[in-house]
Amino acid sequence: MSLQQRQQLASIWNGPIHWDAVMSEHCTLRAGGKAEAFIQASSLAELCRLIVWLEREEIAWRMIGRGSNILVGSQGFAGVLVTLGGVFCEIRREEGDPEQPGLEKIRVGAGCATGRLVGWCARHGLAGLEFMAGIPGSVGGAVAMNAGAWGGEIGNLVETVTFVGRRGQVRTVPRQELGFSYRCMQPVQPELDGAAVVEVVLHLRQGDPREIHDRCRELVARRKAKQPAGVASAGSFFKNPPGDSAGRLIDAAGLKGLQRGGAMVSTRHANFIVNTGTASAEDIIGLMQEIQERVYRFSGVRLEPEVQLL
């Protein structure tokens, strides 16, 4: 951004703007460069105005969640990174459908933490999201990448997703037009390319709160038992290829413990790249590329990262 654009942004934005934000402070990998500006939007109206202004000024922008699946390169992000707070963190129950007894619908803002949503559902006796227990991040990020575990995917529970497009238009899209697939959501409408998720309606089942809590605790314990603890990571770094496991392929290639600078392939779970304390974005990206090349030479499979590189 030019100095004039920075001044204009400061004049039109009511909330705080974090200039030259150190994104390692907003990323679970605890690494990465700076973003020119980092902003939290708290209402739909102000988010729409911001996006329209950014597009008119031809300034790059990206919506991010809680930093659990991103890495900003050490050269930084030349533009504005936007996160959601305020009304975008709300959860509320929708009116039930008498033709679908036992089913409940909830409306959730994209900025809501996934852990908070899972806990809210458990307390209110709503079953179906237990597989998300222990998965970090925001609801918007989870929907955008169709997050899942233990055989479940959040896309299977989606009724509608509301977007803000690059012209500031607000669109609510039914599930059948959202193109959910493994770790991906691709709306069929071209005008939603690059649009930001702001709200989602999910359908869940009525259940016993104690049983839901017990299931969540069980899955969190299983997750902790096999994943590295006490180190910064982005969770599973690579997508599983069809019919196989990225962790198995990395392990079979003998890459557990492989290190570049402060970045290392976890010795506990091979699909985790961990920051041992001093890793730069270059360390992590370089290690990612080496894993991809060596796994390809070993097995003929080219691994694709889940982590988004900005």
How would you characterize the overall build of this protein?
With 310 residues, this protein is an alpha+beta fold. The protein has 3 domains: 3-84, Uridine Diphospho-n-acetylenolpyruvylglucosamine Reductase, domain 2 (2-Layer Sandwich), CATH 3.30.43; 89-226, Uridine Diphospho-n-acetylenolpyruvylglucosamine Reductase, domain 3, CATH 3.30.465.10; 232-309, UDP-N-acetylenolpyruvoylglucosamine reductase, C-terminal domain (Uridine Diphospho-n-acetylenolpyruvylglucosamine Reductase, domain 1). The chain has helices at 3-12, 44-56, 114-123, 139-144, 209-226, 246-252, 281-299, and strands at residues 17-22, 34-41, 61-63, 70-71, 77-84, 91-93, 103-109, 126-127, 148-149, 152-153, 158-164, 170-174, 180-181, 184-185, 196-206, 232-233, 259-260, 263-265, 273-275, 308-309. Strands 6, 7, 8, 11, 12 and 15 form a 6-stranded antiparallel beta sheet that branches. A 4-stranded mixed beta sheet has the order 1-2-5-3, with helices on one face. α3 runs antiparallel to α5 (209-226). The chain is globular, with a radius of gyration of 20 Å. The model has no long low-confidence stretch (mean pLDDT 95).
Quick summary of this structure?
The protein is of the alpha+beta class and 310 residues long. Helix content is 27%, strand content 26%. The model has no long low-confidence stretch (mean pLDDT 95).
